Amino acid sequence: MFLHEIINIIESVAPLKWQEAWDNSGLQVGNRNAQILSVLLTTDVTEPVVREAIERHCDLIISHHPLLFHGLKHLCDETPQERCAALAVKHDIAIYSAHTSMDSWLHGVSGRMAEQIGMTGYRLLTGEEYGLGVIGTLPEPMPLTDFLQRLKTAFDAPVLRYVTGPQKTVQTVALCGGAGAEFVDDAIAAGADTFVTADVKYHSFLDAAGRINLIDMDHWVSEHFTRDIFRELLREKVAIHIAQTDKSPINIY
Predict the structure, then answer these.
(1) Among 43, 57, 76, 84, which residue has the least CB neighbours within 10 Å?
(2) Do both 126 and 192 map to the same domain?
């Protein structure tokens, strides 16, 4: 396949017009007319991931988080981003990222989170055609402690941080992959008894306590299965590899 054909497949469900204004989804490195035979899927573009792409003879890296959020003033070896971009160019490897464009698709990041824990009838939390976060219901209500265990199992989450709201039984759940604490009030207004996201700050917890069950999981843990979304979109079109070096940068002691 040509790179522009792969981009068209991804953007048919996650168009760039859906990304947030601060984001930089899209083609990061490469020629749209390049022929692609093998793809490496990853959450983040890091030096180990680029070197893995080289070793596996991949022509394209598809990531969730963009390598480049801001323009580079030079391409040397002073930052990880510069080194990754230089390595990719040197070895003729293209890099494409679908970040908040994929977050904004109903069946993208947050929708996949909902499916992971068995939710049904989920809909967008913000927006109508596209938007961040989803809300839906579990087939049966369950105690909060059981729901926490379900999250740990479904996402292989090493740590969950949370505060409790008035309901200790969980059934109506809002989710937002990545950093979504800004949508706590949206979750409450939509009738959620529980909101699951990542990167929650102390004062957001303090504000939510007593109002809603707010659960924080690791950012990477909440989004790494975007690799599966990309794999399903491109299945049987090119050779696909999941990056073995793609891991959360955060260590738990």
Answers:
(1) 76
(2) yes
What would the pLDDT profile of 27-51 be if each residue is shown by its tens digit?
A: 999 999 999 999 999 999 999 999 9
Is 251 a domain residue?
Answer: no
Contact 41, 230 (CB under 8 A): yes
E-strand spans in the chain? 26-29, 38-42, 60-63, 94-97, 120-124, 134-143, 160-163, 169-179, 194-198, 213-217, 239-242
Angle, nearest 10°, between helix axes 109-116 and 226-234? 100
Backbone angles phi, psi at 139, to 5 degrees: -55, -35
Look at residue 238 and tell me if it is in a domain.
no
pTM of the model: 0.94
Same domain, 77 and 122: no
CA distances from 34 to 1, 6, 31, 42, 188 (A): 9, 11, 5, 20, 47
Give the length of the chain: 253
Query: 33 lies in which domain range?
Result: 3-102
Q: Give strand pairing partners of 136.
A: 173
